[in-house]
Amino acid sequence: MRVIRSSCLTLGLIVLHALPSFAQSTTTTGNFFQRYAHYYRQDWTNTLPSTPAPPRRGLPSPLDSPPYPNADWSYGGSPVIGEPDTQSYPLMTAINGATSRTRLYGWIEPTINASTSSSSNLPEANNYIPNRLELNQIVLYAERLPDTVQRTHIDWGFHLTALFGTDYHFTAAKGYLSSQLIDHNNRYGFDPTLEYADIYLPVAQGLNLRIGRFISVPGIEAQLAPNNYTFSHSLLYSIDPFTDTGIMATLKLSDQWLLQLGLTDGHDTALWTPDAKPSGTACLNYTTRSVNDNLYLCANGINDGKYAYDNAQQYDATWYHRFSKSLHMATEAWYMFERDVPAVGGPIAPEPNTIAAACAPGLTRCTAPEYAAVNFLNQEINAHNFFTLRTDLLNDKKGQRTGHQTRYSEETLSFNHWIGNTIQLRPELRFDHAWDRPAYDNGTHHNQFTAATDLIVHF
């Protein structure tokens, strides 16, 4: 289904987002371009002035970030309640010393891959065009984060995303400028991927209400390139829902327990499309006091389950386990299904940009289930480097998500290297196998091997 990537600076007004860092340049001399260049010079030579970490509320962070994408066990649909804004902002530092709460930032992500396939790498999603140099994402954020550390007053925030690149194929939702994909299948496109407002209320340990279009809540991975352990995405992630439109309430009951309830219009659709359906989401998140384990359970986008654009009924479980500060694993499994899906070769045509199901002979519609599991094993080397070994399984029982009725597996070995806090390089080797029938290179091969990398430049 969809995946997100990043944004870029195009000579003047674009912001390079560095992942969590307490460093902040205080340089105010020179013009904008001189201040901007000076930030990178300091970042790459490790001479950015450091400041004490701002206070946080809750359990200590289990991970180092960087090099990892997040310092805390992540959950969707809300900022991490009790965590301060510890990111660095090269562009905003050059504009106004990063003194305003409204930020512009983003990244640019070119990618390259070499593949044993010649026509398509699908169902591998984000580098789906084989043997090509592509621009997967240019992303620009406009954002104001609510202050969720304090518990004395109501606060608010907002987020707007502009994404351009090949990855719009995996972020586009029906009704949001989707004709460029559904009607024209353009290689490159633009997607306003996320538009939401956050309202924070000092209830219990903190309550956040998110209203708008946001990332579908469960899971380890996210559409935005810097938010992932690896460049490529798991098979599990590549076919599950990506964005929802509605309202999500996230209530932090205590340092260890978190409850989420949401009402959306289904998955990957706008409210004004005929495919929109009132759908419920409920999640429960638990962290042990040692922060060595986290369990995140979600029932996502639940309604009658009848066939509509990406109307998958998703039941998801994520488990994080920390062996030590430098070694941890992340495991996710889900079960999804959709009822009354049109049969392959039957009289009922499937919706554009959706796939028919391999129903039993004589049926014009049937239920299409699929299940998947993935494990990430992550070893930190130092503040600039870590390795990931990912193992992934998917059973597309009716072929309704990938176009091939088969079981899949994939193994990926990835290396993540940071230059300062503003550049990431993520080379990887990946092997995919379809167990029951050929499913790679447009259904001609059982196996696929890719060597790939992306480069993320934050602004």
Automatic annotation (TrEMBL):
Q: Which Pfam families match?
A: BBP2 (PF07642)
Q: Which UniProt keywords apply?
A: Signal
**How far does the signal peptide extend, from start to end residue?**
1-23
Instruction: Look up the domain of life of the source.
Output: Bacteria
Record InterPro entries: BBP2
* Protein's UniProt name: Beta-barrel porin-2, OmpL-like. bbp2
Which organism was this protein described from? Answer: Granulicella arctica
